[in-house]
Design goal:
mainly alpha; extended; 127 residues; 3-stranded parallel sheet; 5 helices; 39% helix
Length: 127
């Protein structure tokens, strides 16, 4: 994301990366970013809390005026919960993803038939 943001900025369009992954954000060095110490996937707030989401987005947008040093990261003050127990639970849950396979996977049988009838899946990198 940092490389893309820097390229867009080179064309004169300001960018802002909103993130919940501080170390990754620092390593890709976007022009400006806000960090929210929430679980991954919740960079603009908790589900179904529109007021909180609006506050977080507004705080993020304010970074356009507040951050003038390239690579600066604004730490947002919001907390996911009263304590940091959620972090331990996230780390203990491990990686539940399924193993990768060279075989194409289709959501529906009709998708599989269409791909097979076409001779192959043109977007599948394994074929």
């Amino acid at each position: 994301m940092g490389l893309i943001a820097r390229r867009v900025e080179a064309d004169g369009i300001p960018t802002l990366s909103m993130t919940s992954a501080f170390s990754i954000t620092r390593s890709v060095n976007p022009p400006r970013a806000t960090f929210l110490d929430y679980p991954l996937g919740h960079t603009t707030g908790k589900p179904l809390e529109a007021g909180l989401q609006a506050e977080i987005v507004a705080a993020g947008l304010a970074a356009f005026e507040e951050l003038d040093t390239p690579g600066a990261v604004k730490m947002l003050p919001y907390r996911w919960s009263e304590d940091d127990e959620w972090k331990r639970e996230v780390m203990l849950s491990g990686d539940a993803r399924t193993d990768r396979s060279a075989e194409p996977v289709y959501q529906r049988d009709a998708d599989r038939r269409l791909a097979e009838d076409a001779g192959a899946c043109p977007t599948c990198v394994f074929l």
